[in-house]
Amino acid sequence: xxxxxxxPNSFVAIPASPLNTMSMSVTAGMSxxxxxYFIGSQAAKAYKLLLAEQKVxxxxxxxxxxxxxxxxxxxxxxxxxxxxxxxxxxxQTVVQTEQIYKEGLIEELDVKQLxxxxxxxxxxxxxxxxxxxxxxxxxxxxxxxxxxxxIILTDxxxxxxxxxxxxxxxxxxxxxxxVKSNIDYKLITRKIGLDQYQLKLQRxxxxxxxxxxxxxxxxxxxxxxxxxxxxxxx
Length: 234
Prior knowledge:
Blueprint: E1 20-33, H1 35-102, H2 108-143, H3 157-163, H4 165-168, H5 183-204, E2 210-222
Antiparallel strand pairs: 1-2
Helix pairs in contact: 1-2, 1-5
């Protein structure tokens, strides 16, 4: 179209499309019926319970390992005490035996045999020193206790053994007539249940499902230049 008067030999630019256009839309969807979704939500709840029971099992296992290490450290400490007490008595006996030998009442072989026993007990005492140190290192490791720090065991071994406190100190460790209350039984049962949920999910994949969605949109068109906040035009 040429607005009059127009030179037939001139050209006039006519915009073929709007200068500015803008479109936007919003879509929302929802699954109304889906067998896998419902089974998956049930499996998620079962898995959450499994994690809680695994946490109980882990805490129980840590307690058990600490108590075992504590008992071993007590045994080593008590063994060292008994051997040292025996060695102290044996030292006195050697001194007395040597005096008796000087009096000529016993043979030299008896003294040598007694000193040999004394030497063996001293070697055993040194070995127990190392054993006490190793068991205390193991106890510190199980307790996450600083290795370089000293640790003092205040309990006595005999009362603990007599009172059978080893099992009483660990919840669920003592034998029970109710098998279902055992944490290992609970974990196995829970894992079997999760496997069954996996089978149900595979079956639900073939079930029909129903979904719905909602969409709304709009479009804005003009031929005016947009003026931005900084004064520039587009």
